[in-house]
Structure formats: C-alpha cells, structure tokens
Design a protein that fits this description.
Number of strands: 10
Number of helices: 10
Bound molecules: aspartic acid, magnesium ion
Order of helices and strands: EHEHHHHEHHEEEHEEHHEE
Strand content: 5-15%
Helix content: 25-40%
Shape: globular
Structural class: alpha/beta
Largest sheet: 8 strands, mixed
Radius of gyration: 19 Å
Strand order of the largest sheet: 3-4-2-1-7-9-10-8
Distance between the termini: 35 Å
Length: 299
C-alpha cells in the first residue's frame, strides 16, 4: 500500500480536487490519502479563534462566513454537498491553545469530507477516517506529541478490515486528515503548523507502506526557493540524512519531523509535482549518494 499526501495548495480549488481524483483513479494499489485544509483555510480558522478568544462576535462571524463561502463554492463546482457548521468547541475558554485545536482542526475535517464525497461522486469508492480517533496524542495543544504505539495499534486495526465482496479486487482508498489528532479522552489536537507531512510519514510508518508520496505545486525538492531563484534545480535523489539537514535548515520543503518515522523503516519518500504525476520528482531514500549541489535555502 501507499500513502499520498496532498497539501493545502494542491486542494485549494475545484480543479485541484479534480486533479487529486485523477491521480487516485490511476492507482491499482491501496492508498491512504492524507489531505490538508484547503488553501489558506488554517490561517482563516486562526482568525476565527482569535476573534472567539477576544469575544469579538461580529468579527468572528465575518471570518467564519468567508470560510463557509469558500468551501461552498468549491463544493458547488464539484457537485457535492457536505454540511458545514461551526465546530462545537466543548471547552472552557481559559485555555487558548485548547480552543485553537478544537476549532482549527475543522479545516482538515471539512476538506477530507469534501474530497471523499467528490471521489465517491466520480465513482472512486473510498472511506473517510477520523484522525482525531486514530492518531493518539498527548494534550500539548498546538504541538501535540504522538503516542506512537497506541496510534500504530489503532491505525493497523482499521486497515486490517476485510473487504466486502464488492470491494474485493479494487484498490482500497482511505481519506484521512493531516495535521490533527486526538487525546484518549476525545479532545482534538494539532501537531503544529504544516504538520500534514508528518501525519503522512506516521501513517506510512505504522502501516509499513511501500512508499509515501507528497504531491506539491513544485517539481520536487529544489536547491532553492523557486519564487526567489529562477535557477533553482531539482534534486533527484537525497539520503534521509541530507533531507533531514535540509528540512532543519529552514527549507520549506517538507516538515522537519517527516523524515524520522520513514528512515526508521527505510520507506522511500517521493516528492512529486501534482500537475505532472508522471514526472520523476525527488526521492528520499536509503542511499550512499551525497548531496553534491549547492543549496540555498535558509530561514
Ligand atoms: N493545514 C495545516 C497548516 O496549514 C497543516 C498542513 O497544511 O500541513 O498548517
Ligand atoms: Mg495547510
């Protein structure tokens, strides 16, 4: 089985989700599809939290309405309908970080509902999974620490399901949220901004996946930020160690926690352009090859 991760930029509009559908439709093996919140939804939800926190009701409602309108428009273009409603925040208002996680996690819960409904609509059978039950963390809100053994057991259990007859001989597609998790007592948590890559790596690791692929709006891992340097070059192959060093140096390539769970099991990580799925992209794997290109990423 494989793990695919689609970031916010890849699912920021209806075309992006259609493209995701085309990529999944080509698959013959089982895929766990990890999806981020659409476009800049996480930032928008942060504004909702801030307004909530400050009890600025009108401001909060305005910000919330923008999120609703944005998702409704995408849904209508895709011909799907998913209920959108303010996440209930069953928490006291005395812990900002806890309130943040209850609200901000909604971006991924909603994006995955829409993606799942769209896949169903175009005839790709799939199931939606709730990572607030499957990715177990402690209660360090906004920077939750993953309880790996419990997560491993929970995720392996749901992937051990017996396919019904109509599912047999088909690739089994599961759609799940990046970035979010939950505590044992059911409170939602988040792993830190841009944490969806890390989720994909964890899922790949606990399921002993054949590979993990991060689909991005760039050709792969580049030697520099392409927005700043037009001569940025693609790095075709990287060792886990070099990738880790790059991520730690502030390169906006992959979340820095992504490498370890994969390195640990020698699972290859591909970074590929989602608009050109046949392109080779970059591969991070066990290799003796050293990075021999000048790299200009930096904080
Ligand atoms: N949606 C979250 C964020 O924007 C997680 C992610 O995109 O990886 O930080
Ligand atoms: Mg995001």
């Amino acid at each position: 089985m494989k793990v695919y991760k689609f970031g916010g930029a890849s699912v920021r509009d209806a075309d992006g989700i259609r493209n995701l559908g085309r990529i999944i439709a080509r698959e013959t093996s089982d895929v766990a599809v990890v999806v981020s919140a659409m476009g800049k939804t996480t930032n928008a939800l942060e504004r909702v939290v801030n307004a909530l926190w400050l009890r600025e009701t009108e401001q909060m409602e305005r910000e919330w309405q923008l999120i609703v309108d944005y998702h409704r428009e995408i849904q209508s273009k895709l011909g799907v309908e998913v209920e959108i409603r303010m996440p209930d925040a069953p928490v006291s208002f005395d812990n900002y970080d806890e309130l943040y996680d209850q609200v901000v996690s909604y971006g991924e819960l909603l994006s995955t509902r829409i993606v799942s409904a769209y896949l169903t609509r175009v005839g790709i059978r799939n199931r939606w999974l709730d990572m607030t039950r499957l990715l177990r963390t402690d209660a360090t809100f906004r920077a939750a620490q993953v309880d790996y053994p419990t997560t491993e057991r929970l995720i392996q259990d749901v992937f051990r399901y017996r396919p019904t007859a109509e599912y047999a001989n088909r690739a089994k597609i599961s759609v799940l949220q990046g970035f979010i998790g939950g505590t044992g007592d059911g409170r939602r948590t988040t792993l830190g901004r841009e944490g969806s890559d890390y989720t994909a790596a964890l899922v790949g690791s606990v399921l002993n996946a054949d590979s993990v692929t991060i689909w991005k709006d760039v050709p792969g891992i580049l030697t520099a930020d392409p927005r700043k340097d037009p001569n940025a070059k693609l790095i075709p192959i990287l060792s886990y160690e070099d990738a880790e060093r790059l991520a730690e140096s502030g390169a906006q390539i992959i979340h820095r926690k992504t490498i370890f769970p994969l390195e640990h099991k020698a699972i290859p990580l591909y970074v590929k352009p989602f608009l050109d799925p046949d392109a080779a992209g970059s591969i991070i794997c066990k290799t003796n090859q050293k990075l021999n290109m000048p790299v200009q990423w930096g904080k």
